[in-house]
Design goal:
298 residues, 8 helices, 20% strand, alpha/beta, Rossmann fold
């Protein structure tokens, strides 16, 4: 559900919102689910927008504006902030629904489309092409800067409380990176993202390289049957945190759900596993609460 008053209000709050969008391939979100994820699984969860201000917005950044989705309690002020980081499929309906779930708990939840300069992942059905032509071309430095702008935008629009960040798959890795990058973050929840590996010019470091500088504790949630993020990499990170982690890192927690696959929270995909996803989301919310992100109880 799109709230035009909400969109109009947000678009007018900053002069940069009207900047020319040259250099941005994606200037608006695609309705529904990403092409690469179709058909949608029968377990898909739909959270309504009743009682919320929710819809697509534009976040002013240094070189234009990012399309994004935001949801918050209608008329809400001084709210905790939850930044929701996309999977490789962009800010499609599942990510928007996650924003509404957090908004129902009293948060200002916002999901920026972090691939906007490189392409529109929601329209690409070819997974290898999606990874090669869009995801691999997104610099970490660009993402960190865009998230900084996203936090400041949220603060100008009713989000005054502490900041939580959560991300899935590609966004799981970004959650760890941003918890090391920003002193604004109070708590992170990372879901099945890459933890170790060789860096490159655009993505030079992985979570294991940053444990010494982590500024906020992160709850990492992983699948025991995840072929892409093996349990061995989780244990490697756990050992690195114990050996050389910062104080915040040592407060972090890594959980492996033995029977879960990659994407076990993604209710629109066959990988969804309700018996793990439901308690994992409750645990994520409790984690944020315990670290000062004042989410309401359901």
């Amino acid at each position: 559900m799109r709230n035009k008053d909400f969109e109009s209000q947000h678009a007018s709050l900053h002069p940069l919102a009207q900047l020319d969008r040259r250099g941005f391939v994606t200037t608006a979100l695609v309705a529904g689910f990403a092409a690469a994820t179709l058909p949608v699984h029968a377990a898909v969860i739909t959270t309504d927008a009743a009682g919320l201000d929710a819809g697509e917005i534009k976040i002013p950044v240094r070189d234009g504006s990012l399309p994004a989705y935001a949801a918050k309690p209608a008329g809400g002020k001084n709210l905790p902030i939850v930044i929701v980081i996309q999977e490789i499929f962009g800010v499609h309906e599942h990510i928007r629904d996650v924003c509404r779930r957090f908004a129902k708990l009293g948060a200002y939840a916002i999901a920026p489309e972090l691939f906007a300069r490189q392409g529109n992942p929601a329209t690409v059905a070819d997974m290898p092409g999606l990874m090669r032509d869009i995801v691999a071309k997104v610099p970490d430095a660009q993402v960190m800067a865009d998230l900084d702008e996203t936090v400041q935008f949220a603060r100008r629009n009713g989000g005054r409380g502490k900041v939580g960040i959560t991300g899935f798959c590609w966004g799981g890795r970004i959650t760890w990176l941003y918890a090391a990058h920003s002193s604004e973050v109070a708590a992170g929840v990372a879901w099945y993202g890459r933890l170790v590996g060789q860096g490159n010019d655009l993505q030079p470091k992985n979570p294991i390289d940053l444990v010494g500088g982590l500024q906020a504790p992160v709850l990492g949630q992983y699948g025991g049957r995840d072929g892409g993020i093996p349990v061995e990499s989780v244990e490697t990170l756990r050992a690195a945190i114990a050996k050389e982690g910062s104080a915040a890192a040592k407060k972090s927690e890594l959980i492996v759900y033995p029977e879960a696959q990659h994407g076990f929270f993604a209710d629109y995909r066959p990988s969804y596993r309700a018996e793990d996803a439901i308690p994992a989301f409750a645990r994520a919310c409790d984690w944020m609460r315990s670290n000062g992100v004042a989410l309401q109880k359901p």
